[in-house]
Amino acid sequence: MNTSTIVIQLAINIVAAGGAYALVAAGYTIVHSTLKFINFQHGYMVALGGYVTYALAVNARLNFILSAVIAVLVVAASGIVIERVGYRPLRRASRMAPLLVSLGLTYVLQSIVLFIWGPAYQSFDVPTQPVMIGGAVITTNEILMVVLSLVALLALDLFLRKSKLGIAMRALSDNLDAAAIMGIDTDRLISGIFVLASGLAALAGILIGLEFYIQPTMGFPIIIRTLAAVTLGGIGNIQGAIVGSYVIALVENLGVWFFSPAYRDAYPYLILILALVLRARGLLGRAPRDRAA
Amino acid sequence: MHSRASSIVSFGRRTLLRTGGALGASALLGGAFGRTAFSAETVQVGSMSPLTGSQAAYGTFIQQGQSLFAEQFNEAGGFQSGPEKGKRLAVLYEDDGEGTGTPDAALSAFRKLVQVNGVKAVTGVVLSSVALPLAPIAESAKCVFVAIDPTTPKLSQYKNFFRITETSDTAGPTYAACVLKAGFKNINFLWVNDPAGVGTHEKFIPAYQALGGKVALDLAISAGATDFRTEITKCMASGADCNVLLAHEGEILVIMKQATNLGFVAPKTQWFTNYYSDEMLQKGGAAFENSYAKQYHVPRETEAYQNFERAFRAKYGPSTEIAYFTMAAYDALDAIAKAIEIGGYDFDGMNAALHNLNFQGVSKGIHFNAENGDNVTTAQDVFKVVNGKYVVQFTYDPAG
């Protein structure tokens, strides 16, 4: 394996991982920018997306694409339930309350998955084919992962910038109370935000399941990287979350290559600490003065 | 960290629920009968294993083996000799939370068994990271402990601590010899960075090099990681002829799947894993074809094994696979029962008896080192996966 092949292979590894992280981080950011709490449960929507797909495609033997579409819809709909039952009653409570609920929900969701599917790793068994690029290998599933995450992120960006609903969601994230005074139905919009975020998380779970395996605790490492990515990119900024996700994937894979894979989980946080020391608001975060303006 | 013959999922969900229900019902019924008819005539022994969480499959295996042993033991009349003669054996199962990353649940479970239930003998525990904080507490509580699979040598210092598995002091050199005997002289060694992995790695590398092997890449991997593409890329760049894994089922499944996706499998390279599992093979499919694996040599020709297999089939059905952990757990409880018959249900008596035990178990010969309580039987079978099945290549016995 020559140097150029290694560089291409590493680039493929980074882009594929970054795409999955970005989907989760973008969904996380929409919720966080509106409700301003650390939402651990979001990582477990990723797992739920993977497991609902598994139930339909493997257990019920439905067509895989149909299963994936249904899974995204089911998990998106479960976002409404979670918001209404778990978070809406705490809208005026201190930020600690929804944070604790989100922690509790992670365990509830993990336990549900464990009860139904057990602790073992599961696979969708969707065949994949290697494609050679300059001696390096990218699989068709990885291509799908990269393309679908880019399409989903572009669609999200367009939705938030161009559609009335998206603009209202952004208004909500800027100032929840002001949006309510202006007659925006904030409850419905927040439900919509959870639908969008949960749907993106489910899609990430499906893509991860295609390339790797799904397992009940998969939500935790994902949310750990997501928190690093959104903080690095600038909290509340979707573009920042996406850039942060790719930077995290880059640092993680370079850390594995040049240092040791044993500390894979630590590299994202090392770079996060360094970045925050140098630029406290994150890579694309707005300064307080910009926000006021 | 050792091989196993099957896992929970091969049962299917319904079978799993049935098995769980049956275990739960038998535990409830056992408890009820114990209180009404046998409470004064029962010797209670604790069993700790992961019943929930990511390691819960081990707990199911351990419960299967120990509930089978207790059932057979009591049907045969309970304790046959010693001060407890005529009494029945009752096993109290506790969830030790292995896999949660902390030993807190295990410490609570142990304290409950000793302080509330008053047990003087406990069996179970798979991971070294959980056994290590438990061992000194068990020693000060004057409780004998027969563990299933923690391999760290640091446990050898506790005179009341016994284990069915070998330690990494012998596991490392044995694994090294198996890899070389299979014909691999230039390897990448990928080992999971946890107490068992660190201990076995420390002994594997010098043993392998002393036997003439070359380690092209010595790579610690993160336990529980779900993406190993860059680690595999490093292996691809090293030029070694075999990749030797020392990891758990999850990491092995992901690595083999990603290596297959990257086209980095036989005949381009070879893979050798420390984990033997029919269910893993089924799940991994073609990714495991032509790979090598090792497992403790199970003496299937012995009467002990054949009796066990018949009873296991009668209780759990013909299609349930017999996992290594089920056999090891059966042997651990058997060892405790024998120690109670010899030394009574007394710490010093059981401790002395366990140090001198020597019997043919189901999984292997059970013979604890008189000095440190470690099992001395370490023979391994080496398999190659051919057409989706493990095919024995050779048996390696370090004892010769």
Number of strands of chain A: 2
* Secondary-structure element pattern of chain B, one letter each: HEHEHEHEEHEHEHEHEHEHHHEEEE
Shape of chain A: globular
Major beta sheet of chain B, specifics? 7 strands, mixed
Q: Kindly name the structural category of chain A.
A: mainly alpha
Rg calculated over all Cα atoms of chain A: 19 Å
Cα-atom radius of gyration of chain B: 21 Å
- Tell me the major beta sheet of chain A: 2 strands, antiparallel
Number of helices of chain A: 12
Beta-strand percent range of chain A: under 5%
- Percent of residues in helices of chain B comes to 40-55%
How do the helices and strands line up, and which of them pair or pack?
The complex is a heterodimer of chains A (293) and B (400).
Chain A: H1 3-35, H2 41-59, H3 64-87, H4 96-117, E1 130-133, E2 136-139, H5 140-162, H6 164-174, H7 176-181, H8 186-211, H9 219-233, H10 238-258, H11 267-278, H12 288-292
Antiparallel strand pairs in A: 1-2
Chain B: H1 13-38, E1 42-49, H2 56-75, E2 88-95, H3 104-116, E3 121-124, H4 128-140, E4 144-147, E5 161-163, H5 168-181, E6 186-192, H6 195-210, E7 214-221, H7 229-238, E8 242-246, H8 249-261, E9 270-273, H9 278-284, E10 292-296, H10 303-316, H11 324-343, H12 347-356, E11 358-360, E12 365-367, E13 380-386, E14 389-396
Parallel strand pairs in B: 1-2, 1-3, 3-4, 4-5, 6-7, 6-8, 8-9, 9-10
Antiparallel strand pairs in B: 10-13, 11-12, 13-14
Helix pairs in contact in B: 2-10, 2-11, 5-6, 11-12
